[in-house]
Design a protein that fits this description.
By secondary structure, this protein is an all-alpha fold. Helix 3 runs antiparallel to helix 4, helix 4 packs antiparallel against helix 6 and helix 6 packs antiparallel against helix 7.
């Protein structure tokens, strides 16, 4: 087994445990739960095989579904985010196309990393809550869940990214 595979597997296990044991119990203002496992997909470099990113996204989604009792919701949403992550990363850093792009705050800078990760997190939350609720009856609560969870998740990811190099 390669070292890269073992690192990714270890990260998957750690993020799933943090999500299941700590973060799933947080409900800020009744509508915001940080979904830190999305960070797993956001970290894949541009030269990683796309099928591998999609497979890792599906596996992480299935693990998140098992712990959160949301059958298929996280796996479908995270698989879609994994599918569009590399093309979106390419759009965000178009000037460095010939290089291997590692999407971290240290390599991209704060603003570029923020504009790379926030739309993907928003899209993930939009898909997640649309599949979970499958109803737009209470659309205000739906929008609150998307906005609150997206911002709370983004805040957690920015904190992790800013403390990585220290």
């Amino acid at each position: 087994m390669s070292v890269d595979f073992l690192k990714k597997l270890g990260m998957l296990v750690v993020l799933c445990l943090i999500q299941a044991l700590i973060l799933n119990r947080i409900k800020l203002f009744g509508c915001a739960t940080p979904l830190l496992y999305v960070h797993f997909i956001l970290m894949f470099p541009s030269d990683y095989p796309r099928w591998g990113t999609i497979l890792w996204g599906f596996v992480m989604g299935v693990a998140a579904d098992m712990f959160a009792n949301t059958p298929g919701v996280a796996s479908a949403s995270l698989t879609f985010i994994a599918f569009i992550q590399q093309p979106f990363l390419g759009l965000m850093v178009r000037d460095n196309r010939d290089e291997d792009i590692k999407p971290t705050m240290a390599s991209m800078g704060f603003w570029r990393y923020f504009t790379y990760s926030l739309p993907l997190i928003l899209l993930y939350c939009l898909l997640f809550f649309a599949l979970e609720d499958f109803s737009f009856y209470d659309w205000k609560q739906y929008l609150l869940n998307i906005a609150g969870t997206s911002l709370f998740t983004m805040l957690f990811i920015l904190v992790i990214e800013s403390t990585k190099g220290k």
